[in-house]
Amino acid sequence: MEAYTGFAEVYDTFMDNVPYEEWAEYVVGLLKKYGIEDGLVLDLGCGTGSLTELLAAKGYDMTGVDFSEEMLEIAMEKKRQSGYDILYLLQDMREFELYGTMRAVVSICDSMNYLMSEEELLGVFRLVNNYLDPGGIFIFDMNTPHKYRGLGDATIAENREECSFIWENTWYEEEQANEYDLTIFQREENGLFRKYTETHLQKAYEIETIRRLLEAAGMEFIAVYDAFTEEAPREDSERVYFLAREKGK
Predict the structure, then answer these.
(1) Count of alpha carbons within 13 Å of 174, Cβ hemisphere only?
(2) Domain membership of residue 153 as a residue range
(3) How far apart are CA 144 and CA 240, in angstroms?
(4) H or E element: which one contains 214?
(5) Contact criterion met (CB below 8 Å) for 217 and 189
(6) Is the dihedral of CA 89, 54, 180, 116 positive or negative?
(7) Is 228 in contact with 26 (CB distance < 8 Å)?
(8) Helices and strands: H and E segment counts in the chain
(9) Are residues 104 and 136 in contact, defined by beta-carbon separation less than 8 angstroms?
(10) 177-187 and 193-203 beta bridge pairing
(11) Residue 130 in contact with residue 98, Cβ under 8 Å?
């Protein structure tokens, strides 16, 4: 099943424990560290637009790209409520097209882990480099192999008044791939529950692999941090942030 179809409607409900405001502060801090205090910024894999909205509130001219029409419908509703002038584009990140270059590209919440091969990652990195202004900054996060190993083969469930989910997780060590089958139950107006099923695939990459691919795409590798710090990743880091810079096409 295509990911983020049925799940889109309940995504924000189950992500209400994510401190998006803190995540936005962290990203903005990194942007400003490299001189990007305003201007055009792309949120690649923007989902329902939670971070996109927060960055728009910080004064950035935001564009959001996502492949899920259902997620973007929710993002558009947030835009209507907030009034921010955000451009949303329904596109696959593996072949996205923009109207011009950006001062920065950001991608959070492990969107890059959905790219299942080095070839796909390299292709996206090349596109990012192509659409960055000279010296523009690319900031993205990834889940680590350590995190996926910790999930292992497990079943996770959460039950709420209006919706519930069952997450059946499988980690494939040899392929460095994580698969989870997601079953969602959502209460309808008549009180009955509608059932949705989706399968999500993500891949884990070593830090040195990402560095090599960024450089192969023509970018300058700046740093990798343990999430929400400016410290080097640890062996038990579950999420890391990468920073790269356009250095000439």
Answers:
(1) 0
(2) 146-203
(3) 7
(4) helix 207-216
(5) no
(6) positive
(7) yes
(8) 7, 11
(9) yes
(10) antiparallel
(11) no
Number of neighbouring beta carbons within 10 Å of residue 117: 9
Token pair 């991608």: residue: 107
Residues 20 and 78 in one domain: yes
242 within a domain of the structure (yes/no): yes
Tell me if residue 123 falls in helix, strand or coil: helix
| 81 and 126 housed in the same domain | yes
The pLDDT of 8-29, averaged and rounded, is: 79
pLDDT reported for residue 139 = 98
DSSP for 150-170 reads HH-SEEEEEE-SSEEEEEEEE
Query: Which candidate, 1, 17, 14, 8, places its Cα nearest to that of 49?
Result: 8
Average pLDDT over every residue of 21-45: 97
Q: Kindly report the pTM of this predicted structure.
A: 0.93
What is residue 205's predicted lDDT score, i.e. its pLDDT? 98
Contacts of 48 by beta carbon, 8 Å cutoff, 6+ apart? 8, 11, 12, 71, 74, 75, 78
Answer whether residue 198 is part of any domain.
yes
